[in-house]
Amino acid sequence: MSDDLLFTPAVKAAALIRARKLSPVEYVDAVLKAADKANPRLNCFRVLMDEQARRDAKTAEAAVSKGETLGPLHGVPISVKDLLDVKGVPTRHGSAIFEDNAPAAADDILVRRLRAAGAIIIAKATTPEFGVKGLTDGPSFGITRNPWNLERTPGGSSGGGAAAVAAGLGPLSLGTDGAGSIRGPASCSGLVGLKPTLGAVPADTTRDAFGNNVYAGPLARTITDAAIMHSVLAGPSEKDPWTLAGGVQHALSPKLAGEDLSGVRIGYIELTANPRIAADVRANTRAALAAWQELGADVDEVSEKIDWIEYEGRVLYQANFAVFCAQYLPKWQNQMDPVTLAFMERGGKFSLADFRNAQFARTALFRKIQSLFERYDFLVTPTNSRTALDVGHDAANDEVLVDGVKCGITRQGWTSYQYPFNLTGHPALALPSGFGADGLPTSVQIVGRWGYETDVLRLGSLLEAARPWAQHRPPALPSA
């Protein structure tokens, strides 16, 4: 099999399989062989499910031969972040605490939906401990590296899946996003990453179903692949109240049906809680805006002051880890990620009043964003303020350098565009905008109205057509 197969979009591969022009057995085997070679350098997979994946590929091939009804992802190899259960393999949560976890007895609801669509699960992808940070590394599994540059991070916390998709180790990966953990890795790795609307995709295992800020969604190389995977994942679950009450997915807005964007209003936000944006990221973001303008869109820079509640967002985030992880400290403290421990320490110092005021601030932020959507159809920002950080960056303490200037820790200086929309619940899509001066990918973020993922994906697809990127591939990995 040629390397071209590894970088074939999922939608095309599934079509070839349905037409009996591609064997699921040969396809999965090619991806697994490539993973055997690349994973020792990337460290993107915690577990490769070789035997089960090959069995499932044979079953998929038999279904084609028998003329059975095939799902939209039939025979397509997919990895799953190691925060979600896949039957028959341990879920380790990126932590030494669960290193000896028993194999999961059942698939997570989202894994079940992917299998029902015909997908073949090939691996559990690496994640930092409990998905706590925007880089992917940890004491229990080491460092996950970016295939564009092995000395840079693929982002986090869905970094393993992002590195895999960018390297051609499956066209799709299932990630989760609690403060940017799909969009950040997409930005670092030259991918499409979608954080859906709150309630569109179920989060059956979350501890706080009513105050949820954690989402699941696709990492892909193309908009169409991300859209198809999202459509498979979306839908209600009896265990997630948001999906029962607010998970409506609206049809495409008529004014986005063609390539004429006249009447489409885009509000551009260049800075959120961050003090700086890298010159190359700014240039590429403005080039994306110009591409939409050339199609007729009206682009206006949002000038009003917005409280992006960086401090209050940190209260909610770190207090959660302080409470949730306290049970593990007596036995596991010496084996936990120092970043987890630092976030717990900071979170433990917040008062109940701090926490409630942070929840009030979340409501105020939601209402402010809602007011912007009275004027705009979309909000557009960069996804990260700069390209991928070095793999040795300390997310708890090191300040992020943007064009040589210190700009605070990661959520203040690098990923500040992402977490606000975990708190407000609006759909947010990261997609490539070009390459930075260092040769690494840059990214733009599209934020849409509640339930309008289709609109967000459509605007992204028009940029994809105007400024194609899926033909770019990371440098060849050195032989393992």
Brief write-up:
The chain is 37% helix and 14% strand.
Give structural attributes.
480 residues, single chain, globular, 15 strands
> What level of helicity do the residues show?
25-40%
Spans where pLDDT lies below 50 across 5 or more residues: none
Shape: globular
What is the C-level CATH assignment? Alpha Beta
Describe this structure in words.
By secondary structure, the protein is an alpha/beta fold. The chain has a single domain, classed as Amidase signature (AS) domain (Amidase signature (AS) enzymes, Alpha-Beta Complex), CATH 3.90.1300.10. It is built from 17 helices and 15 strands. It has helices at 3-6, 10-18, 24-42, 50-65, 109-116, 159-166, 183-189, 223-233, 241-246, 279-294, 310-324, 329-332, 338-347, 352-372, 410-413, 420-424, 453-466; strands at residues 45-48, 77-81, 120-125, 137-138, 142-143, 172-177, 192-195, 215-220, 265-268, 298-301, 378-382, 401-402, 405-406, 428-435, 441-447. The chain has an 11-stranded mixed sheet with strand order 1-3-2-6-8-7-14-15-11-9-10, with helices on both faces. A hairpin with a 3-residue loop joins strand 4 (137-138) and strand 5. Helix 3 (24-42) packs antiparallel against helix 4 and helix 8 packs antiparallel against helix 17 (453-466). The longest helix has 21 residues, at 352-372. It is globular, with a radius of gyration of 21 Å.
